[in-house]
Amino acid sequence: MDEQIKEALRNISDSYEDFVNCYSKDLKGNEEKQRKLLDYLKNNPNAQTDDVMEYVDDVLMAN
C-alpha cells in the first residue's frame, strides 16, 4: 500500500517531491491511516496539497 500512497500523492495537481516523500514516510506501514488518506483523496478529487496536509495533520495524526 506504500506505493499506492506515493502514487496518489503524486497525482495531486500541485504535488511536489518533498511533499510526497514526507507524507508517504509519515504514513509508511500504517495501513489504516493509508486507507483513510486514499479514501479522502478518492472523495476529494480536487484536493490540493494544503488540503491533504490539513487532513493528515488534523485528522490522521491527531489520534
Distance between the ends: 21 Å
Main sheet properties = none
How many beta-strand elements? 0
Low-confidence stretches: none
Note the main attributes of this structure.
mainly alpha, 4 helices, 63 residues, 71% helix, globular
Description:
By secondary structure, the protein is an all-alpha fold. The chain has helices at about 1-10, 15-25, 30-45, 50-60. Helix 1 (about 1-10) runs antiparallel to helix 2 (about 15-25), helix 1 packs parallel to helix 3 and helix 3 (about 30-45) packs across helix 4 (about 50-60). The longest helix has 13 residues, at about 30-45. The chain is globular. The mean pLDDT is about 95.
Any chance you could write out the topology, listing elements then pairs?
Blueprint: H1 2-10, H2 17-27, H3 31-43, H4 49-60
Helix pairs in contact: 1-2, 1-3, 3-4
Write a concise synopsis of the structure shown:
The chain contains four helices and no strands. It has 63 residues and is mainly alpha-helical.
